[in-house]
Every structure is written in C-alpha cells, then in structure tokens.
Backbone:
C-alpha cells in the first residue's frame, strides 16, 4: 500500500519528527473499496476504489516513486571536490550501505550516474586519502515498494567521517574547522545550524575524549552506528542529506603519495581561522581571563617526547624576559594529561608565547592572539622541514603569529627509546640488523621529507626526549641556544603587527574601478588625424593609497597587425591616426601599485 497518514509512527528514541513509511504490499486481494480498510478509500481517487491491488501494481509503483524515490544534486569546486545534497537517501544498518531508490521522478544532477559517486565523493577533508568513500547501491523503486520500509529522519543531516578523532591536531584541522565552514556554507551563520542540522559521523570510531568539541557544532549529533535496526527489511530514510565537506580551511596535506607539506593552493586566511576560534570560545563558554602580566604557555608531555630540563627552561624564559624587558612574565606549564582543553585554550587566548615539542597539542596555537609567537621544539635527527603543519598554520595570511623552530643538533642532549611499543617509536618489532642501521643513521643524517604512514624511522626519532640548550656557554655544542629564540620573540611587536594584519587583509582585496567621464575628439592636421582621449580617475581611487598610479591604453585600429599598448601616468593620451581610419577599439585600465583595476572599453566611429 502507498504511504498513508494512518501509518505514521513516532519513534521514542529519535523523537516526534521521525515517522515510519510503510510501503509493503501485504494482501493483494483486498479491494480498495473494502469497508474494513477505510484508509484506502481516503488515499486513492474514487475511480480506483473498485479495483483490486493486483491490477494496480503499476499505479502503486508510481505512487511509491513519488513518495520514496531518491534524488541528488551535486557540485564540484577545485578546493573542496565533489559535494552532494540528497533527498530521501536510505540507509541499511545491516548492510552498512546507503541506498539510492531510483524512481520515475528521481533527479540526478551534476554527475553522470550514481555509481560514479563511490570513486569521487569522500566523507573526510583529508587530501589525497580514499579511506572514507561514499558507499551507495541503487535500488529500483518498485523493489523498495514491495519489500522494504523505512524510518524517516526529517530535516537536514550532514554526514562526515572523522579521520583520527583521538588526535587533537587531526580533530581540529581535519574535522572541526572543515565542518564549521561547511555549516557556514549551508546556513550562512553557523549559530543557526546548531539546532537544525543533524551531524552524523560515518566512521567506526566511538565517542572519545574529544567528543565534547564536536558537540559545539551541533545540538543533534550522532554516530551512524547508533542507528540500529534488526529487521533486514527495515531501513532509515534521511529526508535531506549532505555529503562532502568544505575543504577551504585545509592548510596541510599529510603525505599520501608525496612528501607531506602545506596545501599550496589553499586560499584560507587568518581572519577566517579567527572566526572559527571565536565561535569555539563562545560555544565552550570561555571567559577572557584578566591579564595583569604577560603569559608564556609551555606544553608539557608527561609520558614521551619529554623536555628533560623543562623546569630549568621555564625559569630561564622568565629570567630572560625580566632581564630584557623589566616585566614579570607568568610561565604556565600545561599538559593535556593534567589540564582541560578549555583551560588551555583560555590561557592561550591571551598568551604572548607558546612553547612545545612537535605534537598534536600545538594545534591549540590557533587560539593565540595576533602578535604572539609559537616555538616548536624538534628532537635530534629531524629537520623542521619534514612536518610544516604548524609553520603553515602560522603562515596563513593575516593570522599574525610568528613561527620559530628550535632544533636539537646535539646527540648528547637526546634520549631515544628502542624499548617503546612500535607505534610510539620502539624498534623491538624490527630485525636486529635493521635496529642497528636505525641507530647508526640517527647520527649520520636528518630526516628531510616524510610520506605517510607508519614510518619507523620517523616514529623512532620523533619520540625521543630532549634536553634544550638554554644558553651559549657550551661552545662545543651545535644547537642554537634558546636565548636566541627568545631574542627573536621580543622583536614581535603587537600593535604594529596587528595594524599590518588589518591593512594587508584589506589592501589585498582592493582594486581600482573603471575610469570615469571618458571623452574623445579628433583634430585634423594636414593629411593626418590626431586622436585625443581624456578621462578621470576611478571613483574609488582615493581610498586605495596609490603610491604608483598608471593607465594602460590598448588601441586596435584594425589596420595594424596587432593592437597597440601604451602606458601613461595621467588621464590624457594622443595618437596620430591614418586619415582613412573609420573605426577603432579602445581599452583603458587603471593600475594602482601594480594592482590591475576594472576594464573600460569603447568603440569609436570616426566620420
């Protein structure tokens, strides 16, 4: 039978917005006018009421097509790839597949066919990684109508696969920030999405330590694995489903098939990143701490990648700043093991410096204010060029945080751990000859590039403990003393930098409009003609602070082989023309500090 109001069922788990659409043909012998089934009479037109269901299979299929058929609209962009919006997309928990119910009224827009989505639609923001493709099967609507039913989930749902939800850097870079800008795209203002868009995670990971961070993005958040139906003929139907995330914010690629490094084509900027961090601080209900002294945050690791002289380093930083600024600095040693993420974020939001060994916690540097600095400590045998994720973050246009690497160049200041488990750099799983080679190569050359994943050399070296060289008293050591790093930090001036950030962001987007009040006339001089052009500056030129203003004039007389180009600094131009010339084309463009403006064009007819 077709979808009937009498068959609406409210699910106690998912709330009153979820109803059950039952489209199973149970008794083909019941006439549609049967008084025992009054719902049939209310559903079908009067001309069908004296006909049995057996003779109306085609009608029922068509009705089912309208009620249960799926549709999809897809678009693609260079930064984000393919993204799609589905209507009536079904999901089978037992088969762990999405089902596109194909009917006569299904719409398939922007793609050649549904099967192509499996190779082109991905549920994670991670670049060049195919671990989370969109798994979908197509089912004819008449098969659905005769054999299956669905619990319908109304409203908008955004489907995302978390990449590594146990790693804070991946949580922010791969999940939280891309999801935020996807919701921003869908709703305009993310706050309006929080209680309207359901966030559904399709990966097989459980809720974990960072689940509360994901909850800032949606008041309706769930794992796809939560949707359990034991009946193989019962599915879920998502009324409005979005797949594919906005990858505008992805500033780093992790080395799948090539050395890892910054995402070169990213147009993401610092002011957009600060829009996200402001949102997060608001959703986490963080109060801006009262600042009485400048704060330095040191990220401490308690179990591995330790700074062995951490207390001495903290004291040296405080003493150095007092000696050179006569200001008292508060040095706060914080760790993910002992402090909440909210507390660390609150402290970082007013800090002037963040110091820590390369690791996931440094991603919290996104909350540093403009004019601050991030110092990343690198263990022995690793070049900072191998993993530039935090340098790339600080280098985002207009972000305003100075990145400074410190590298341990001295073997005497490192402690390696071959006894660790293999996933944190241990060597016990390797042959004895490979272990000896790894130890020998540690002293011979640095790691310069890195491809993903499970590189034993990288893990062995990055999980070393480090003693930071504090000063230059030990002349025989090669490392740059940390005092030199602090000298660079003090060069960062907050107010001028903040002003430069604002000016840079604005100026980069400005360009001259078209030239105004264009006029021309011809002066006859013996056997030739003189063309005189005149115009005024673009109307917005006064707000552009042009140190250098030029006008490019291109004239096509249709006599010369190519159009002729000229450059002048004032709004006047003359050119001698051939007497027989009747028509010419003129283009004028204003350049402000070499930034090209809008084009002015006209065709001149000479009598």
Residues:
């Amino acid at each position: 039978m077709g979808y009937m109001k009498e068959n609406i069922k409210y699910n106690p788990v998912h709330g009153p917005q979820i109803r059950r659409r039952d489209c199973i043909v149970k008794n083909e012998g019941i006439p549609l006018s049967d008084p025992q089934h009054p719902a049939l009479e209310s559903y079908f037109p009067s001309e069908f009421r004296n006909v049995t269901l057996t003779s109306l299979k085609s009608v029922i299929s068509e009705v089912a097509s309208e009620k249960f058929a799926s549709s999809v609209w897809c678009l693609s962009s260079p930064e984000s790839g393919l993204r799609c919006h589905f209507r009536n997309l079904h999901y089978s928990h037992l088969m762990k597949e999405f089902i596109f119910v194909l009917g006569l009224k299904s719409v398939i827009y922007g793609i050649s066919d549904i099967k192509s989505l499996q190779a082109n639609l991905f549920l994670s923001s991670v670049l060049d990684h195919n671990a989370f493709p969109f798994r979908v099967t197509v089912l004819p609507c008449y098969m659905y109508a005769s054999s299956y039913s669905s619990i319908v989930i109304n409203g908008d749902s955004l489907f995302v696969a978390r990449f590594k939800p146990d790693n804070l850097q991946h949580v922010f870079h791969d999940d939280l920030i891309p999801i935020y800008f996807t919701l921003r795209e869908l709703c305009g203002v993310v706050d309006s999405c929080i209680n309207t868009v359901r966030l559904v995670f399709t990966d097989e990971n459980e809720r974990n330590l960072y689940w509360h961070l994901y909850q800032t993005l949606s008041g309706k958040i769930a794992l796809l694995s939560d949707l359990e139906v034991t009946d193989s003929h019962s599915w879920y139907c998502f009324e409005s489903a979005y797949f594919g995330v906005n990858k505008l914010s992805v500033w780093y690629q992790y080395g799948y098939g090539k050395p890892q490094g910054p995402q070169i084509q990213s147009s993401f900027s610092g002011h957009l990143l600060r829009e996200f961090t402001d949102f997060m601080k608001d959703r986490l209900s963080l109060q801006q701490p009262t600042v009485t002294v400048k704060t330095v945050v040191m990220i401490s690791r308690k179990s591995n990648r330790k700074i062995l002289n951490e207390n001495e380093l903290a004291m040296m930083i405080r003493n150095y700043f007092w000696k050179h600024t006569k200001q008292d600095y508060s040095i706060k040693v914080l760790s993910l093991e002992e402090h909440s993420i909210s507390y660390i974020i609150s402290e970082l939001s007013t800090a002037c410096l963040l110091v820590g060994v390369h690791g996931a916690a440094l991603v919290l540097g996104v909350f540093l204010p403009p004019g601050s600095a991030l110092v990343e400590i690198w263990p022995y045998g690793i070049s900072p060029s191998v993993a530039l994720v935090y340098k790339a973050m600080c280098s985002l246009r207009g972000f305003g945080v100075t990145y400074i690497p410190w590298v341990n160049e001295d073997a005497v200041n490192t402690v390696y751990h071959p006894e660790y488990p293999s996933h944190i750099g241990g060597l016990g799983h390797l042959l004895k000859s490979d272990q000896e080679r790894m130890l020998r190569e540690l002293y011979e050359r640095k790691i310069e590039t890195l491809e993903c994943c499970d590189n034993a050399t990288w893990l062995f070296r990055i999980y070393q403990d480090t003693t930071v060289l504090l000063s230059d008293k030990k002349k025989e050591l090669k490392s740059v003393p940390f005092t030199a790093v602090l000298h660079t930090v003090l060069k960062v001036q907050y107010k001028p930098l903040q002003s430069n950030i604002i000016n840079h962001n604005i100026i980069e987007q400005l360009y001259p409009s078209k030239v105004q009040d264009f006029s021309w006339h011809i002066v006859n001089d013996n056997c030739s003609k003189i063309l005189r052009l005149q115009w005024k500056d673009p109307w917005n030129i006064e707000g552009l602070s042009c140190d250098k203003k030029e006008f490019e004039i291109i004239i096509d007389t249709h006599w010369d082989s190519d159009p002729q180009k000229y450059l002048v600094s004032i709004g006047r131009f003359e050119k001698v023309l051939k007497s027989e010339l009747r028509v010419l084309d003129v283009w004028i463009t204003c350049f402000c500090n070499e930034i090209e403006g809008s084009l002015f064009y006209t065709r001149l007819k000479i009598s």
User: Anything to note?
Assistant: The first strand starts at residue 18 and ends at 22. The domain at 516-605 is CATH 2.60.40.10 (Immunoglobulin-like). The radius of gyration is 33 Å.
